[in-house]
Amino acid sequence: MAHLDRTLAIQHANPEFFRRFGETSASLCGRRFADLIHPSLQAPILRNFSHLLEGKHHRFASRVIALRGDDEPLTGTLTGVAVQGGAPDATGVLVLMRPHAEDVDESAIVRRKPLLSKIDAKILEGIAAGLSTIPLASRLFLSRQGVEYHVSGLLRKLKVPNRAALVSRAYSMGVLIVGVWPPKVVEDFVK
Fold first, then answer.
1. Is this structure's pTM higher than 0.70?
2. Which of 81, 129, 181, 182 has its CA 20 to 30 A from that of 22?
3. What is the mean pLDDT of residues 152-172?
4. Which residues touch 184 (CB under 8 Å, ≥6 apart)?
5. In terms of domains, do 67 and 13 share one?
6. Which domain holds residue 150?
7. 112: closest CA among 68, 178, 150?
8. How would residue 109 be classed by pLDDT, with cut points 50, 70 and 90?
9. pLDDT the model gives residue 90
10. In the predicted structure, residue 103 carries a pLDDT above the cut 50
């Protein structure tokens, strides 16, 4: 359990929270809570937090992948509750992180390692947006064959048979940000 201020910085937390993340209170307090969340899930989680702080909701619960200090994944359910002070609007957020009891195949959770070149990232974003080869080629100032070369490299790199499977695998690995349109690659995966 942790208490966040209006800027979503960690103010206080219980010893179990520090233990789960493998950090001390000195290293976690004052840090942005979003830094503990896997990059592919930050946008929807931050949207939930902003709804709490604006008073649109009083609480939310969401599945989350958090990152410990050593970039080891921690999966669980994140519950956020608006905390009211003397003012009518929310003065902070109480966060409960309940880890999943079952063992998770941690090899399925990709750590933040560079995976794509800048051009590969742009091509993946275009494919996820539904663009075909020729519009992608004109948008990226490449030939049609150049786009196909990069697409076939992406298919091999992610070990998938076609473009639809490529987009699906990219979302499941956390390479593409969930809940964002047009599709966007997480910066941490770009070399």
1. no
2. 81
3. 91
4. 125, 176, 177
5. yes
6. 118-189
7. 68
8. very low
9. 54
10. no
Q: What are the residues whose beta carbons fall under 8 Å from the beta carbon of 55, sequence distance 6 or more?
A: 82, 89, 90
Residues 22 and 77 both lie in one domain: yes
Q: Which of 13-27, 36-50, 82-96, 124-138 has the lowest mean pLDDT?
A: 82-96
CB 41 within 8 A of CB 174: yes
pLDDT of 131 over the 80 cut: yes
What is the residue whose two structure tokens read 């063992």?
Answer: 103
- Please tell me the distance from the alpha carbon of residue 91 to that of residue 75, in angstroms, as a whole number: 27
Neighbouring-strand partners of residue 4: 10, 93
Question: In this structure, what is the dihedral angle of CA atoms 122, 126, 129, 134, given to the nearest 10 degrees?
Answer: 170
Q: Are residue 71 and residue 122 in the same domain, yes or no?
A: no
Residue 51: CB partners within 8 Å, gap ≥ 6?
Answer: 57, 60
As a whole number, the mean pLDDT across the chain is 83
CA atoms within 13 A on the CB side of 98: 7
Q: At 60, give phi and psi (nearest 5°).
A: -150, 160
CATH number, domain containing residue 156:
1.10.10.10
Number of domains composing the chain: 2
110 in Cβ contact with 173 (< 8 Å): yes
